[in-house]
Amino acid sequence: MPGTRCYGTEQEMNIVDLHVHSNKSDGSLSPTELVDYALEKGLSAFALTDHDTTDGIGEALKAAEGRPIEVIPGIEFSSEYEGADIHIVGLYIDYESDFFKRRLTSFVNGRIIRNKEMCRRLTEYGIPVSYEELTAEFPNCVITRAHYAKYMLKHGYTKSLKEAFDRYIGDRGPCFVPRKKITPMRAVEIILKAGGFPILAHPLLYHMGSSRLERLVSLLKDMGLQGLEAVYSTYSPSDEREMRVLASKYDLCISGGSDYHGTSKPGLDLATGYGRLFIPEEILDQIKIRHKWIKEHPEQLRRTKILFTDLDGTLLNSKKTISSYTREVLTAWSQAGHKLVLSSGRDINSVADVKNEIQLSLPGMYLIGYNGGQIYDCGQQKTLYKAALTLSQTAYIIEASEKAGVHVHTYSDTHIVTPRDDEELVYYRRVIKTPVIFSPNVTDALTDGPCKCIAIELKDAQKLENFRLSLLDWAKEEGVSMIYSNPYYLEFFPSCAGKGAAVGKLCEILGINPYFSVAAGDAQNDLSMIEAAGMGIAMINGSEDVKMAATTITAYDNDHDGLAHVLYDLI
What we know:
By secondary structure, the chain is α/β, with parallel strands linked by helices. About 35% of the residues lie in helices and about 20% in strands. Helix 9 (about 235-250) links the parallel strand 6 (about 225-230) and strand 7 (about 255).
């Protein structure tokens, strides 16, 4: 693979700027005005890298037609890593590809949900504003908190932009809703799949410390990162040297940019930053050489992924099966070398029943049952991991349920175990075909602690909630999680289990970096799984808390191949 080189800064060289913003995100100049200004500044090329949007690229390219300047189609993705906001710049994006348009649409859907919630909270705090009013005020813009602040100032709700942030929409403000962001690893993957060149933007601005930053660079390199922004407006000569050394260590191309925003960043100019910036065209030449190489060797960038998918409401449609299109996409996923995990709150035998009923038998398949309590390898036909309640904990839950008049059952390795037959058990077994053992003393029918217990109340939701509340202190002391899998089902399992814990455990067993994992779900018991995975997919038919936690929301529901349409772009 072509390597990187260092360059001098002779003033006769052509210069470029590979990190520039227009008013299509948070800059002040239009794309056309940027082209004019770039020519005035003597640039031979610049990259338009607006935040999470490519809306200005067409205009910029048209403005540059027949003029001595190259406009590089780009983007700057906002992502999240260990609580830090990390930016990934993409150059030479195929911004008109169907794949890239779908991904941006997904980001927009997530932003809309977040922005509508912020409008609701502001209204509750005496600042009535609807999402429709906000977007009408700022047409054709990616709505950020700055737009909320400008709205409040213009309409007299605050006396300054600072007051809007301090009182309402700052990081700790009562009306702020954090937007769930993709990981930087996922941003790198999206850029590569769109034919682009991914670069870690302004690494020193994250204040991560050398070892933590290097760990991030290593992870991103493994995902396919190709460049590092070592030349930047705020860098000192020693900062630049440090970043060049880091880039060289991981065989990354050098990139450079002013991060020009116009009047939004006073004193920072295009091409020259704060006066000392100089980005020779040779930096772009090396990027072009590497970009050509990676496009000619796509096999070098393929990575094994693992999909954890919930069943009901996610993978399965209302008829408890999958369509031919979903089957086709899952088959292609497996044939590409990726892993598939059916993850459910059901007992492991019932998950296996579903697998057989939908006739899904693919290489690299695993089952997770009991909300993460058991992991089963379909290929080796053996359990890889199991976490269980103790027999005494099980007895306590059963005894408490008897006093509360709430149905509870549990599981042996092969059977449902419950004190009696009742309406709730009949309802539960409409779909679950696992055989039943009736035993007045449930623990007598168990040889080991079960992976979970489940309480069911079909008619009185408050009764079930009162039962949960009565066990809060005990559950906390015992390390037992209580989670609703739907409004009628309250599940008990060890706190060390859970679908999220199972994501980490199976990735560890298989030697797959969790950042390369994908999780899809629709209900509360899928939350930990979605949060633990490198990419979280919420079904559009899912609960609002799941949508808020996910990085991607499907465009279609589970009856219209919602998961398959997203998965197709991940293969």
